[in-house]
């Protein structure tokens, strides 16, 4: 099936470049362009987008606010947001993951990386750009309003998970794929996928990116210090 992509960036030149790239792929098509967050939310509803490439800094409603609106709308539950940013570890990126984005990608990424990110996001498995290290985003996600960033409410929700689901969640938070987790636990990738899906359902996560946020903010996984 064709992946329907919405482009949200206040720079027309960048949108044009992204359109040419995306439309050149046989399994993708650009269904709309937005110059601000409010327009992006409206077009996501009207055009039936599957993936939104969202710039963070836009006039009016910015990408962060737009991501929150999309994530909170039940009618847009299938829509995946990939944040495009100049600085891949910018605090805005961390906030966008918490707001419900499926991942982020630097604007300086190679074209193949952008296309791959769209496909991965559409499959519900987006998290980090290839240039980001696993531990780095973990440290940012763990920074909260209090001393350790731990969210007691989310910690309590982990009690609904089985022991194996918690084990899988820890490995997901480490950036491991289903195949890698299956090899470590000596089970089939299908079994891992089942555990991941059950954990997502129990924790109310839209995708793997939100599972990682929950794992760190609940205190199940602690950030690296090196």
TrEMBL record:
Residues where 4-aspartylphosphate is found: 55
**Protein name (database record):** Response regulator transcription factor
Coiled-coil regions listed:
none
The Response regulatory domain, residue ranges: 4-122
Among SUPFAM superfamilies, the record links this protein to:
C-terminal effector domain of the bipartite response regulators, CheY-like
HTH luxR-type domain ranges (all copies): 154-219
What species was this sequence derived from? Streptomyces chiangmaiensis
User: Which residues span the membrane?
Assistant: none
Alphabetical list of Gene3D superfamilies matching this protein:
3.40.50.2300
Q: Which UniProt keywords apply?
A: DNA-binding, Phosphoprotein, Transcription, Transcription regulation
**Looking at the keywords, is Nucleotidyltransferase present?**
no
CDD domains for this protein: LuxR_C_like, REC_NarL-like
Q: Which Pfam families does this UniProt record tie to the protein?
A: GerE, Response_reg
List the top taxonomic levels of the source: Bacteria, Bacillati, Actinomycetota, Actinomycetes, Kitasatosporales
């Amino acid at each position: 099936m064709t992946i329907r992509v919405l482009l949200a960036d206040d720079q027309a030149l960048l949108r044009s470049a992204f359109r040419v790239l995306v439309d050149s792929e046989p399994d993708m098509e650009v269904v709309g362009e937005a110059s601000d967050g409010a327009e992006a939310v409206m077009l996501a509803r009207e055009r039936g987008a599957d993936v939104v490439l969202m710039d963070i800094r836009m006039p009016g409603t910015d990408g962060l606010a737009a991501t929150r609106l999309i994530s909170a709308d039940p009618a847009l539950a299938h829509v995946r947001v990939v944040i495009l940013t100049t600085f891949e570890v910018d605090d805005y990126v961390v906030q966008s993951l918490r707001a419900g984005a499926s991942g982020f990608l630097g604007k300086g990424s190679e074209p193949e990386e952008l296309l791959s990110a769209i496909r991965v996001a559409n499959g519900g498995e987006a998290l980090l750009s290839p240039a980001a290290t696993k531990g780095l985003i973990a440290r940012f996600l763990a920074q909260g309003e209090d001393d350790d960033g731990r969210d007691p409410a989310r910690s309590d929700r982990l009690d609904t998970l089985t022991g194996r689901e918690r084990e899988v969640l820890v490995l997901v938070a480490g950036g491991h794929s289903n195949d890698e987790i299956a090899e470590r636990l000596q089970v089939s990738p299908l079994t891992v996928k089942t555990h991941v899906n059950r954990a997502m359902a129990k924790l109310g996560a839209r995708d793997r990116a939100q599972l990682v946020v929950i794992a760190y903010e609940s205190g199940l996984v602690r950030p690296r210090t090196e």
